[in-house]
Amino acid sequence: PIAKPVLGIESSCDETGVAVYDLERGLLAHRLYSQVRLHAEYGGVVPELASRDHVRKLLPLVRETLAAAGLDVAGLGGVAYTAGPGLIGALLVGAAAARALAWSLEVPAIGVHHMEGHLLAPLLEAEAPQAPFVALLVSGGHSMLIAVDAIGSYRLLGDTLDDAAGEAFDKTAKLMGLPYPGGPQLARLAEQGQSGRFRFSRPMTDRPGLDFSFSGLKTQVLLAWQNSDQSDATRADVARGFEEAMVDTLRIKCLRALEATGAKSLVIAGGVGANRRLRAQLAEAASRQGFRVFFPRPEFCTDNGAMIALAGALRLQAGQLESNAIKVFPRWDL
Ligand code: KG4
Ligand code: ZN
C-alpha cells in the first residue's frame, strides 16, 4: 500500500516520458520528449542515438515533471519504469535512473511491462473501463487481442503472424515515399483520399481465429502503387484503401473477440489507437452492437510516462516487491 504519488519513467524506444500518478488524485503531471526528429534522417530509430538522447533528457524531464506536479522528490512514494520489452540501451537509462532515485529516497521501485502500460492507459481517463474487458493492443511492435480478466491477469487471444499493425502503417508509408515515421502521415493522407478507388483484402477475416497478418496487405499496396501513375492524388487514394482494409480487419477481429469471451467492454491501446478512422468505426460498432469502447486520449495511445506511472502504482499497491538489481528485458512476453 502506498499513500504517496508514483513517478513513472518510459524510455523503451524513441520517446522519453515522465509522469507522476497518484492512486487517489489521478495523474498529477506528465511530460514527453520525442526523439522523432533525431531519427528521421536515418529512416528509423537508431538504438545508440536513442540511448544517448534518453541520457540527455531524462533527468531534466524528471525535474520539470515534479515541478509541474508541485512536488519535491521527497513527496514520492515509489518509482516505476519500463523494464521491457524495448531497446536494451534505452531501457537501461530509465531503469538505472529509476532504481538509483528510489534507492536514494528509500522508496520501492518497480519494473513495468511496456505492454501492460499501454493496456492500462484507458484507466487514465475519467471514464475508465472495468475488468473483464477485451483489449486491442496495436503499436509499432505488436498487434494483439488480449482478454483482461482482472488487472494483472491477461490472456493472449490473438497475435500477429508477421508485421504489427503500426509496422504495416509505417512500411506502407515508406514504400509510397513518405518520410519516417510514416504511420500518422499515411493516416492524414488517407483522410483526403477517395474511398473505393483501391480495394485491398481484409487479411485472415475469411476464416475463424483471432490472429492477424499484415505483410500480404503491404505487398498488395506495393503492387498497386508501382502500377499506378504515382501522383499525389493516387497516393492519397491508395492510403485510403490501405487504411480502410486495416481498420476493417481490426474491427472484425475485435467483434469476434468480444463474442468469444462474452466481454461487454473493448479497450483500444497502442499507437495505432490514435487512428481516427479506427476510433470512429469502433465507436459506431459499439453503439450498433451494444458494447462499450474505451480509448485513451491520443497522446496516451503512443508511448508515454503516464501509463507506466499508473501501471506501477497499481502493482505497488498490490504489494509487488522487487530486488534492487537493475534488470531489463529487451524481449518479454506479457
Ligand atoms: O505505441 P507506440 O507509440 O510505440 C510502440 O510501442 O510501438 O506506437 C507507434 C506506432 C507507429 O507504428 C505509428 O506509425 C503508429 O503507432 N501510429 C499510427 C497513428 N499514430 C501512430 N498509425 C495509424 N494512425 C495513426 N494516427
Ligand atoms: Zn509502445
TrEMBL record:
CDD domains, A to Z: ASKHA_NBD_TsaD_bac
Pfam family, one: TsaD
Keyword Acyltransferase attributed: yes
Domain Gcp-like stretches: 27-309
Compartments where located: Cytoplasm
Keywords: Acyltransferase, Cytoplasm, Iron, Metal-binding, Transferase, tRNA processing
Residues that span the membrane, as ranges: none
Reactions that this protein is recorded to catalyse: L-threonylcarbamoyladenylate + adenosine(37) in tRNA = N(6)-L-threonylcarbamoyladenosine(37) in tRNA + AMP + H(+)
Coiled coil: none
Cofactor binding remark: Binds 1 Fe(2+) ion per subunit.
Positions annotated to bind Fe cation: H114, H118, D303
Purpose of the protein: Required for the formation of a threonylcarbamoyl group on adenosine at position 37 (t(6)A37) in tRNAs that read codons beginning with adenine. Is involved in the transfer of the threonylcarbamoyl moiety of threonylcarbamoyl-AMP (TC-AMP) to the N6 group of A37, together with TsaE and TsaB. TsaD likely plays a direct catalytic role in this reaction.
The protein, known as: tRNA N6-adenosine threonylcarbamoyltransferase
Species in which this protein is naturally found: Tahibacter harae
Phylogenetic lineage: Bacteria, Pseudomonadati, Pseudomonadota, Gammaproteobacteria, Lysobacterales
